[in-house]
Amino acid sequence: MEKIKDENSKQRILNAATKLFAAQGFEGTSVRHICKEADANICMISYFWGGKQELYNGIIEDLIEKQTEYAKTFIDFDVEPAALDKTSQINLLMTVINKIIEFFYSEKISKDLLIFLLKAQQEEKLAIHSPAFTYLRKLIGAIFNKPENDREIILKTVFIIAQVNSPRILPAFSLSLLGQEDFIQEDIKIIKENVKFYINALLKEADIA
Fold first, then answer.
1. Where are the beta strands (DSSP E) in the chain?
2. Predicted structure pTM score
3. What is the DSSP string of 146-178?
4. Fewest C-beta atoms under 10 Å: which of 6, 37, 102, 177?
5. Which helix (H) or strand (E) segment is 78 a member of?
6. What is the pLDDT of residue 10?
């Protein structure tokens, strides 16, 4: 029972910290304020993370952990993309993109977390090591017969991800015009179709498909 209580406190602190860091930034948010928002004992931050900076990093680590566990349901990380034939590589890419869209538009990515991530991207010291996105880059590299760290592959991956997340990070140009507060399944279907169209255009340009 105590462990369950601790885990509940941990999640409440993560949620509160995400909300406050998103609204007020790192410097403008205190550990005391986070604990008050989370209704948690201040010693819990030391217990789980050690300090404010570690808690800040912990938000990203928690997201990557959840993302990785989700990715394991449709990616076999033990299989190198280069070992697959071209058709299998392309089919896997479409599956991965569909699943990323479903994850990004789910309740797992709250508005607070989205704002937090957008702000965190501006931090020079931020380093996000996501197994799912590393695998995606490897997969795109294998499809285009280039190494994963090739400049073209890195930018192709970024542009594909931009196609995935742009409606959500630009709500004034999507939700506001749609007259909605959130995306519905019909919207997510359209987003999937548009990303697939973009990927097929890249493949056609490279004479791959």
1. none
2. 0.89
3. S-TTSHHHHHHHHHHHHHHHHHHH-GGGTHHHH
4. 177
5. none
6. 92
> Is the pLDDT confidence value at 127 over 70?
no
CA distances from 149 to 42, 96, 118 (A): 42, 19, 23
Task: Tell me the average pLDDT across 175-196.
Answer: 96
Closest CA to 67 of 142, 166, 11, 136: 136
Task: Show me where the domains of the chain are located.
Answer: 1-50, 60-205
* Topology agreement, domain 1-50 and domain 60-205: no
By three-state DSSP, how is residue 122 classified? coil
- CB-based burial label for 103 (10 Å; 0-12, 13-18, 19+): middle
pLDDT of residue 48: 94
CA nearest neighbour of 26 among 125, 110, 92, 95:
125
Determine which helix (DSSP H) or strand (DSSP E) holds 8, and give its type and residue range.
helix 2-24
- For 1-50, which CATH class? mainly alpha
How many percent of the chain have pLDDT more than 90? 88
The CATH number of domain 60-205 is 1.10.357.10: yes
CB 55 within 8 A of CB 20: no
pLDDT at position 120: 87
